[in-house]
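Check this:
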Amino acid sequence: MRKIAVIGLGYVGLPLARLFATKYPVLGFDINQKRIDELRSGKDLTLEVEDDVLQEVLVQENPFNTETNGLYCSNQLADIEGANFYVVTVPTPVDKHNRPDLTPLYKASETVGKVLKKGDIVVYESTVYPGVTEEECIPVLEKISGLKFNVDFFAGYSPERINPGDKQHTVEKILKVTSGSTPEVGKEVDDVYKSVITAGTHLAPAIKVAEAAKVIENSQRDINIAFVNELAKIFNILGIDTHAVLEAAGTKWNFLPFKPGLVGGHCIGVDPYYLAQKAQEHGYHPEIILAGRRLNDSMGEYVASQVVKTMIKKGINVSGAEVLMLGITFKENCPDVRNTKIVDVIRALEDYGIKVTTYDPWANPEEVMHEYGIESLKELPDMKFDSLVLGVAHEEFIELDYDTLKKVHAVVYDVKGIISEKADNRL
């Protein structure tokens, strides 16, 4: 009987653990005691799993002991000893120099290595460059456990395809890529995922193939968004409405429907650097991938400059001006603030001497302050502003009464292009 331990209960790990728990005994492990307490109470503050859905699978004791289906959350190493199928879902960020930071993966591998037994399978879901599982993680498992890879224990890789805030494309409804360290193990890994993923699975021929597939999925999106961001800059100079151009071009059946915008988050804004790192280690400099990253990383400063130019054209004194930033999460209708590029816009506006007030009904103010040192409000401030910047397309902002927040000649800048009829300018 498969007894599954999911290591890391964030945006990726919790939805997966919940899903597995409908058919298997599952131990959800996370080092954050606050997160464990929250989940044990039946609440998920990431909003990826509805409280009632989570509560349906929660059990009060370790299901490995009773061999009954259900999810038990813990931060105690001893609780995962009974597992025979480990799934690692920890984050893989980049450092301030955009170099891959594998520290969470190393620490998670050390944790699993301490309880690894003969016959166990360890599957990684964290986004990595090709080779990380076998060249970086497996040696840690071998060292800590004293076991031999592909003799005593085995491995797999199944890239996460979670889309934060998306209640339609949930984990079970997205086709899952799987792989294993041997053909036989690949089949075993695939069978476990296939038993809960209703959309089906695709068994890749090797772990490195599955790793590479993940990083190019998001690198492809990054490059395409960079292209339309560059178009937005060109058409702005030419005085042409970018969104109107894209709408017209989109009438062709094979035109890809990408829109300009800020590219942040834990995937698209990060994954290309993982692929670039591996390419550079092998002596190849990836020009298109890094060019796309540079352009997308520059968009925060560009948005700020466009806001300031529009303010100047309206005769607004920029220095000391009051600006309301609407939204700070990395995408709409979710509380995830990881690698949000709204911060770049705020910093750039502040460099012009502007005072920025940030309002986001979805974001956790404590998390925003901890991560970025920025005060984020959950309620609209009772005042009027020289400029309003719609940075995130939260549903609350679509029907917002902007007139009540504006001074007489205030600027409304629509980064997301969702309130164009109310905006003075848009990206």
